[in-house]
Amino acid sequence: MAERKSFGSDNHAVTHEAVLRAVVDANHGDAVAYGDDEWTRRATSELRRAFRADGDVFLVFNGSAANILGLSLLLRRHEAVICAESAHINTDECGAAEQILGTKLLTVPALDGKLTPEMIAAQLSARGDDHRAQPGAVVITQTTELGTCYTLEELRKIGEFCRASDLGLYIDGARLANAAAFLDCSLADLAECADVLSFGGTKNGGMGAEAVIVMRHELAADVPYLRKQQLQLASKMRYLAAQFLALTEDELWRRNASHANAMARRLADGVRDIPGVDVRYPVQSDAVFAGVDPRFLKDLQREWFFYVWDEQASVVRWMTAFDTTEADVDQFVASIRSAAGHPSGE
Ligand SMILES: Cc1ncc(COP(=O)(O)O)c(C=O)c1O
Q1: pTM score
Q2: CB of 88 closer than 6 A to ligand 1?
Q3: Which of 1, 73, 220, 332 is 20–30 Å from 262 (CA)?
């Protein structure tokens, strides 16, 4: 039997062929290490241009490290970070921000994963109180961990609020490509409000490369040293850079993300009329969250790989990727429909 597509994560997908080809193409001759090579110069310059970044671009190995490096540029030693409770830095980075940066996360419940200026403002009441960690930066995730997407207007308002409130703004852009595809806008449009952001390559068809984009010139000077201290300076940097060269060529990143988004929409549309399945958030990227009747959830899990997001509420996360096909989705929907028609024991 052919291997079934995983709906567990966009990280479960293979590497895009063009990325692999670019890595192989880079595999000739010697190149000076630690980023002083032609591939890195080209990739970082391409990303600087795409983001209209006044600062600089730094490649790292993974998204958690990008978050830590990016945030480290925005915080003083006594400062805290405001983020949604669902933020990856809060839920899935093993306390790296707390451990490595020594910061405190001021988490805000956000039903759809999105912060608003009002939610951020509510965290500022302790300003000036020397018993309390002082908010220094805000982290938002675009697209969010719940598959939702900030509009450009929402981003603009958050950016303005942060600037007026002397707060740095960092965007966790592990899925920034999905946001640009969903909003049909440029990477620069998304980045405009931020001081620093990440741009994920791995979930978009890469095999382990993320970029930290420093939007403001004055924030960039320390990054080379901090990246090394944070163990993210790749010696054979050309292979990370080659991945971004492939993803930026003719905006392959956008095609990959558009396709993944479209497959998530197809999945959500396919299950909407199935009794016992209840799509929870607007489907604005490559994730579908759904309440699934626990009577047939286990049956489905025996056949397909995906994660239960909230065991108690019986909510699952189904994710697509650049290589999910329409046939994969249709087969999955048919299985869900069939399982829903025969809840166990009936
Ligand atoms: C929103 C978000 N940020 C960051 C990351 C980075 O993770 P990693 O360190 O596994 O590359 C992920 C990965 O799942 C993510 O979903």
Answers
A1: 0.97
A2: yes
A3: 1
Q: Is the CB of 174 inside a 6 Å radius of any atom of ligand 1?
A: yes
| 317 touches ligand 1 (CB under 6 Å) | no
Secondary element (H or E) of residue 318: strand 315-319
Percent of the chain whose predicted confidence (pLDDT) is above 90: 97
Neighbours of 270 (CB within 10 A): 18
- Out of 71, 172, 212, 240, mutate this one to test ligand 1's pocket (max ligand atoms within 8 Å of CB): namely 172
Q: Quick one: DSSP state of residue 309?
A: E
Residue 286 beta carbon below 6 angstroms from any ligand 1 atom: no
User: What is the structure's pLDDT at 306?
Assistant: 98
Q: What domains can you pick out in the chain, each with its CATH number?
A: 17-252 (3.40.640.10), 258-341 (3.90.1150.10)
Bridge partner residues of 58 (DSSP): 212
| Lookup: tokens for 245 | 């060269």
